[in-house]
Amino acid sequence: MSSAYQLDNIKVFYQQTCSLDLPQLTIPHQQCIALLGDNGAGKSTLLNLLAFLNRPSQGQIQLSGQTIKSDLSRQQRRTIGYVNQQPFLLTGTVSDNIDLALKLQGMPTAERPQRIADALDRVNLSHLAKQTATTLSGGELKRAAIARAIAHDPAILLLDEPFSHLDQGHIRQLETIIEQLAAQKDKTIIFSTHDRLQGAALADTTINLIKGKITKSPLLNVFHGHLDQHLFDTGNIKIHTTSQQRASHIAIDPHEIIISNDVLASSMRNHFTGRLIAIAEEAGTIHLTIDCGERFFAIISPDALEDLGLSIGKPICLSFKSTAVSIF
Amino acid sequence: MSYFADSLSAAIHLIASFDQALYEVVFNSISISLIAAVIAGVLAIPAGIIMALNQFVGKQLIQHILNTLMAMPTVLIGLLLYGLLSRLGPLGHLELLYTPTAIIMAEAILIFPIMMNLAIAAVTAADPRLIPTLKSLGAKSTTLTIQVAKQTRFIMLAAIITGFGRAIGEVGAAMMVGGNIEGYTRTMTTAIALETSKGEFEVGLALGLLLLLIAFLVNFILSCLQRAKT
Questions:
Q1: Is some CB atom of chain A closer than 8 A to the CB atom of B228?
Q2: pTM for the full model?
Q3: Which of A43, A146, A225, B76 falls 20 to 30 Å from B158 in CA-CA distance?
Q4: Is this prediction's ipTM beyond 0.90?
């Protein structure tokens, strides 16, 4: 079975700066995928490419095994539903918006009322069907835009930052909608978020983006600097690596970081002493933030927290191997 | 002072008495300008939207030409059209010179660049999410142009009304290709010029006042559209 998307040698330049650089990316069918990254990481750029709203500066994109060189055919466009980060609803009511989307997709007039009712029901917005679209609140607007995007039952649903600028109540509602859509198991859902935990919780797979490049590392302990003779200089600290290739970013998996009260005598090449500045509990694990000139994020067990007797402000040591450092 | 006051009084009397000859000119003028505005709008608005939506070689040049045409003197349009429509011209066989059709053509040519530029400006100034949203919903080429026109309809209607306002106030080209024939090609502006030169100042003044009233109504409708848009 072919993948939903296959991207090869993709580069997107914006004002002569490369904003997206993807040598190869395969997105399988029928998975829920989260694009993770900070602002400016290239999440929206990638989603716009996947929605075929923009073309890459170079490289090619395959949609369900077919290379797309110009505009999508109507049949291909019907397979994609897209919701912008700040959805734009057209003039008229919520129903009018969905009706227009169905009309543009070539849906017969007789089928449209039922499709509209179904789509609104799936996002719990049936009561606002006849409301003028411009009078909706932020959360209602996003749900209306999702209804508009799913009304024609696309195989692929692209959601750009669906949770941004929403209160917790609306975020929970949207999470439920995405969970329900993903549970159907016949759809490929790709959504972007800068909330790593939210992405990991909702998605089957995550794609991490940093400055337009995909990294396998979790987006934690990411440092910017330059590499010289296996030594990565962040400007504040120097970190041993095993690589000599040119790189401007490194990341260290928080699970690879060893916490101790004293400097360990071991084969590990990286040892730093710092101050514990935050302790948080999350899903049964303890997340520590340590300031060693750079801020490190480490994960330990509740037992380790008790054994080490850690408290805020206490000086502690962290160690990790040079092989634990990902370079990109 | 007495001359002006007497003329003004006579002009108001002519308007209030619904003088048939006077209103014939007014209706002729309105119908010619309205037809010209609709024809120019039907051509200029899609052209403007298509130009705004697409990137192509020569786009900048077309924009410069449009801007130049907007500043073109109306008598020059009249002169060129006269050359084309006169008996010896390439379109002489159509026998359109000194007909309302010739004035409609002149006025449509005059307001086409204005309307097209307003249509381009409307699309350019529209919400930047409009085009990507329509494309993501499946709109392309013709459907995209139609939907953009629908979503910016108040501005497009304002463009047609602006064109109408410009057309009804035009005199140079209408005089040259219309010939100012009474009851046929006489418009408000050509009649004002003629009546004033004949010494019938009050008739010219009456037509001038009605022209001013039309200009006021056009601007009133434009401001209503602006309010409706916002």
A1: no
A2: 0.78
A3: B76
A4: no
